[in-house]
Amino acid sequence: MKNRLLIYFFRLEDIVVNFILLAVAFLLSFEIIARNFFHTGIRNSTLYVQHLILAVTFLAGAITSRQKKHLTLAAKLPVREPAATVITTAVQIISAAFTLAFAASAFSFALNAFSPGERVGFIPKRLIGYLMALGFTIMAGRFITGMESKKRRFLWFLLALLLAVLLSWGPLSGALSSLLGHEPGAIRILKAPAQAVLLWLSQPLIIILIGLAFFGMPVYVVLGGIGLLLVARAGLPLEIVANQAYTVLTDYSIPAIPLFAAAGFFLSESKAGERLVEFFRDVVGWLPGGLTIVTVLVCAFFTTFTGGSGITIIALGGLLLQILMQAGYNKKFSVGLLTSSGSVGLLFPPSLPIIIYGVTAGISIKDMFRGGIIPGAILVAATIGGAIIFSSGTKIEQPPFRLRQALRSFKKGLGEILLPFLIIGLYFGGITNLQESAAVALVYAFLLETVIHRELKLKDLPRVMTACVTVFGGVLVILAVVNSLSYYIIDTQFPQRLSAWLGAAISSRYLFLLLLNLALLVVGCFMDIYSAILVVVPLIVPLAGVFNIHPVHLGVIFLANLELGYLTPPVGLNLFLASYRFNEPMGRVYRDVLGFMLLRLVAVLLITYVPFLATALL
Fold first, then answer.
1. Is 235 helix (H, G, I), strand (E, B) or coil?
2. Could you tell me if 142 and 65 are in contact, meaning their C-beta atoms sit under 8 angstroms apart?
3. Per-residue b/e over 51-70, b at no fewer than 16 CB within 10 Å?
4. CA–CA separation, 327 vs 329, rounded Å?
5. What is the pTM of this model?
6. pLDDT, averaged across the chain
């Protein structure tokens, strides 16, 4: 009976998130129609969308916790039993404690930041804050219920709760003060000792968080926890954590992230990949190395829409590997090509990393889209060039070009082929804004794959949407909590001090760019692209100003370097995913991808030292 109730609850979670996401997409689509054809609009639609996406973020985070798919730096624990069990238990207890502390911050923020009558349309703002707290609480609970040892779960829960109370004594006392109308005497007496203990523990806890990051602790706990502890050390109210989460998640551009991600998943879960492979094969397959060109172009298309190179490798890797090997390419070359191709496409609109970079750096996303087109094409060309060079000794039978066959495959794949042109045309033509463009992409992909091609049935929607939810849920939760770390970095004026020091120590703009390349390459090895944007961008933007580097050029350099970091041994993310997907040892994947990585390095240096490539279309 208990298990059945849990299953119903899980299904309810999925249904609510899926319904809200699709409702947001259709709401924005109706807004476009109303504005352009009837010269009116839906009142408060923008505010509704922003706050609905905020609510979806924390529900999606809860689902991501349920499926244990929060982003981590470690694919598997680098230790054996019994140490692995001890470390896993510590990770779960500490993760639960910090997540409960985030929940306390959100609860106190909801009570103190919004008056009871403050609303978004008909929705009380306090309710949004309570949903943030509820989402964090469910996520924390799932760290405990996910433990293997059922007998000791209650003990682990008490330990997590004790640490959480210590971490969040300030927000808890603030919440109690608001509820009771005054601060109880016991809280006043305990406040100073609690703050002193937290201050004393903050430094060792930061070290523990950094250490456990390499043993499977979710990235959002590591970065958010460090932000919370640094805010506490600075004597700032911990409600800043929730306040910053609310601020960033209600940013105008944020709804585009889950909507574009969902559109990408509708494509990847259907046979869109097969249709695109067939089309590109018929159009360019007759060229020397034509099938390798097909591989790179299809990977670039999917990475652009899904926002993650890993998704492309997992979704299309098996299909493309089979096609390449059947054509006569050996596995070594095919694995190297697919691993490197998985990270091309992140510089083309409507790439999710570009959107998040624009939000974090505070620059025009439209300009970032324009700035990424030529450098993105260079990275694609470098990968294609490398594929043709490295496979030049392989005798592959080139099929002749047949116009009728090309037209037939074009007709079959027309829906998918038109999608990027539709989105770019609407957005750059000024007909839709960013979030409306994302809504059009989702509605278009939804109708294309369910109504026109009928490859996805209504019963498949929960599976497709839930797969998408675990991706954007993990990303947006990181975005929410890590903003407190960015707040601390900016509040302490660390970027300005770093800028002053570098300006005095380094006189050459080119030396700075070289050091930036090296630093970002290391960052790309150890961090996923979304965490890297949120942590590193606030530091490097002021530095770029010292050396007169154009903000869009800096963004392109940043993203191109992180793409390369995905391929850099020993811990580039794509190397792990390729090893898993293609059943190859890590050492062999390193060798397979080395040539492609060096060519991409040359392309990244070209993009870095020729700023015109990023600014030509502005």
1. coil
2. yes
3. bbbbbbbbbbbbbbbbeebb
4. 6
5. 0.83
6. 83
